Amino acid sequence: MKPSAPLVSWPQKFRPRLFAVLRQGYSRRQALTDSLSGVTVGLIALPLALALGVASVPSGLATPFPAPAIGIFTAIIGGFIVSLLGGSHVQIAGPTAAFVPIILLIVEKFGYDGLLLATIMAGLIQVLMGLSGMGSLIKFIPYPVTSGFTTGIAVALVAGQAAPFLGLSGDTPPPRDFLEKLPWLFSHLPHLNLPTLLLAVGSGLFILLWPRYRARIHAERVPGAIIAMVVSAVWVAWLGWDKSLGVATVGSQFGPAAIPHGLPPFVWPAITLNRISELLVPATTIALLGAIESLLSAVVADGLINDRHNSNTELVAQGVANLICPFFCGMPVTGAIARTSANVKAGGRTPVAGIVHSGTLLLIVLFFSTYAQYVPLGVIAAVLIVVAFRMGEWHELTRLRKMPRSDAIVLVTTFGLTVIFDLVKAVEVGMILASILFIKRISETTEIAEVTANDELETAEQLIHGKDIPEGVVVYRIFGPFFFGAAEKMEDALLRAGTLPKVLILRMQLVPAMDATALNALESIVERMQAAHGTVILSGPHRQPLDMMVKAGFIDRLGRPNICAHFDHALVRARKILQTIDPVSSHPT
Predict the structure, then answer these.
(1) Residues 556-563: contacts with CB under 8 Å, at least 24 apart
(2) What b/e string do you get for 22-54 counting C-beta neighbours within 10 Å, with b at 16 or more?
(3) Could you please report the per-residue DSSP string of 79-98?
(4) Phi and psi dihedrals of 501, rounded to 5?
(5) pLDDT, tens only, 480-534
(6) Rounded to the nearest 5°, which phi and psi values hold at 439?
(7) Cβ atoms of residues 507 and 463 within 8 Å
(8) Which part of the chain is CATH 3.30.750.24?
(9) Is 530 within 8 Å of 559 (Cβ atoms)?
(10) Of 124, 237, 255, 506, which has the most beta carbons under 10 Å away?
(11) Largest CA distance in the chain
(12) If we measure between CA atoms, which residue out of 435, 66, 124 comes closest to residue 256?
C-alpha cells in the first residue's frame, strides 16, 4: 500500500533559503561571521530607518506610534520575516527611500490608516504573485520605466528634504506638489536656520567622504551616517542648540518619547470595500515597486556571492512582511540594495545575518532610544539626500541622445511624471507608453512582401528561384511575429495588389507566433477571397499559429487541404485548384 500524500505541503515555488542552510549543516565559524555582519548592517540600517520613518510620516499626522520609530520597527519586523522566509541567502530588507513619495501621497489622501491598508493589500498581491510563479515576469518591465521612476524618486526625495535640510519653518508646512514646493522654498529662504544648515552640510559632506578615509583608521564596518547622527546629536545636546538657536530635532518635532522603549501596539486598520477600491491602484504600485526593488537587490547579491536566488520565494517573503508589518504600525518593506551589499562585504553568507541585523536594531531601540531625541532633523535630511543622490541613475540622463528615441521618451516621461505628479501616474503612463512602443517595434520588424519567381528565400528547401508560379497565383511572405500591430500590413498589401488573384499563397514559415487580431485579419482575407471565388493557401505555419487556427475553427473554414507543410506542396495545391477552375489554361510543370 502506497503512503498517502501529506495534507499540507510547501508550494513547489516557495523554498525559504534559511531552512535549506540549516538542513545542510551550519558551522559555528559561519555563525560568528554572519553575526558580526548582522551587527554591522544593523548599525548601517539604524540611521536610514530612522530617517525614512521621519520622512514618510509627517509630524502633524495622527499615528498610534511615533513616526521616527515606525521606520525602525519596520526594519526590525520586516527584515526578520524576509530573512526567515526569503529566497536569497543575503538579502536585507526594510524601508527604503523609493517608497517615500508614494507613502506621502497615500497618507495625504487616506491618512495613516489608509497606508496600513494599502500595505496589507500590496503584501497580499506580492504573495499571490510569488505563489503563481510571477517572480520571473518582473524582469519584463522595461528598463526606461524603472530608470525613469528611480531617478524621479531621487529628485522628489531631495525636494522633500530641502526644507529640513535648510532649517526652514513657516506657518504652514511645505506643499507636497513639486511645482508648488519650489516657490515655497524660495520664498522662505530668508528664514533659513544657519546652524541647522551648517550641521546638515557638514554631515552630508562627511557621509560622502567617509568611505575614502575609513580604511586608514581600520573602521571599514562603521557607517558614516551613524557617526554623523551621533556626533551631531551630542553637539546639539551639549551646546543646547535645540533651545538657544532653534535647531529642530527629533525630540522637538515628535516629542521626548519619539522612539519608545517598548514594542509597537497591535492595530487593525478600517477595511471596507470602498476603501479597498480606492487604494487598489496605490497598493498595486507599492507591490510592483517593492517586487522590482527586491528582485533587483537579489540579483545584485547573486553577482556578489555567485549564487542564484529564488524570485518567487523572495516575493512571497516580501509579501508576508508587508502583510504583517502594518498590524504593528509598519510601512512598506522591500529589499535594500545598499544594505544587502554591505552585508555581503561584511562577510554575511546566510539569512542568519539578516536576522541578527533585526535583533541588533531591536537592542539599540530598547536600550539607547532615549538619545535619539537630540538628532537634528537637518542631519536626517542630509542622510536621505545622500541616499537619493546614490540611488538616482543620473548617467542615464546623460545618455538620452544615444538611446533609441522611443526609449528616451519613455524614460523622460516617467521621470517627469514621478517628479511633478506622483509615482502612481508615472508607472501607469510609463508602462502604457512602453507597451505601445513595444507593439510599434514588433509591427515594424514584421515584413509582408510579395514573392516572385526571381526571389531566393531563406532555406534550401524553400528556394523559389527558378520555380514556376502559375498565372493567377500570388505569393506573399510574412516575416516575423504576426500580431495586431502588423495585421494591417497584410490588408494594405492586398489593397496595393488591386485585383484579387485566383489563388493566394501566404508563406508563414517565418512566423513564430500570431495573435487573435492577426487571425481576424486572415479570416477577413479568406472571406474576401472566397467571395471572389478565390482560394487562400497557407504554407509552413508553425505550431502556435496552427493551434490557434484549429481552436478558432479557422482551419475548417479555410479547408484542411489548403494547409501545406512546404512551399512546393503549396504550388502543387495551387495548380490543382487552377485546373478545376480552368483546366485548359492551367498546365502543371
Answers:
(1) 557/523, 557/526, 558/526, 559/535, 562/535, 562/536, 562/537, 562/538, 563/537, 563/538
(2) eeeeeeeebeebbbbbbbbbbbbbbbbbbbbbb
(3) HHHHHHH-SSSS--EE--GG
(4) -75, 170
(5) 888 766 666 776 776 666 678 899 999 888 888 888 888 888 888 888 888 888 9
(6) -60, -40
(7) no
(8) 447-581
(9) no
(10) 506
(11) 111
(12) 66
Assigned C-alpha cell, 120: 496589507
**pLDDT above 70 covers what percent of the chain?**
90
Cα 220 to Cα 211: distance, rounded to the nearest angstrom: 8
| Residue 334 phi, psi (nearest 5) | -155, 165
Is residue 457 within 8 Å of 464, Cβ to Cβ?
A: yes
Cα gap 190→210, rounded to integer Å: 32
Q: Determine contact, residues 46/359, Cβ cutoff 8 Å.
A: no
- Nearest partner of 499 among 455, 536, 534, 449, judged by Cα: 534
Distance CA 109, CA 318 (A): 25
C-alpha cell at 247: 535647531
Q: Sort strands 93-94 and 334-335 into parallel, antiparallel or unpaired.
A: antiparallel
Count the neighbouring beta carbons within 10 Å of the beta carbon of residue 444: 12
Judge whether 436 and 423 are in contact, CB under 8 Å.
Answer: no
Rounded-to-integer distance, Cα 577 and Cα 583, Å = 9
Nearest C-alpha neighbor of 48 from the set 384, 433, 338, 490? 384
Q: Which residue is listed with cell 559632506?
A: 205
Closest by Cα among 369, 373, 414, 163 to 249: 373
Helical (H) or strand (E) element with 479: strand 473-479
Note whether 564 and 537 are within 8 A (CB): yes
Do the bridges between strand 503-510 and strand 473-479 make them parallel or antiparallel, or are there none, so unpaired? parallel
Quote the CA–CA distance of 543 and 530 in Å, as a whole number.
25
**pLDDT tens digits for 201-229?**
999 999 999 988 877 777 766 788 889 98
Query: 566-587 pLDDT, tens per residue?
Result: 888 998 999 999 888 765 544 4
347: left (phi over 0), alpha (psi -120 to 50) or beta: left
Q: Which of 100, 106, 101, 132 is nearest to 121 (CA)?
A: 106
Provide the residue type at 509 as one letter.
Q
State which CATH number among 3.40.50.300, 3.30.750.24, 1.20.210.10, 3.30.70.3490 fits the domain covering 447-581: 3.30.750.24
Beta bridge partners of 564: 539
How far is C-alpha 571 from the geometric centre of its chain's CA atoms? Answer: 51
Q: Which pTM value belongs to this model?
A: 0.74
Q: How far is residue 584's CA from residue 589's CA, in Å, rounded to a whole number?
A: 14
3-state helix, strand, coil in the chain (%, to 5): 65, 5, 25
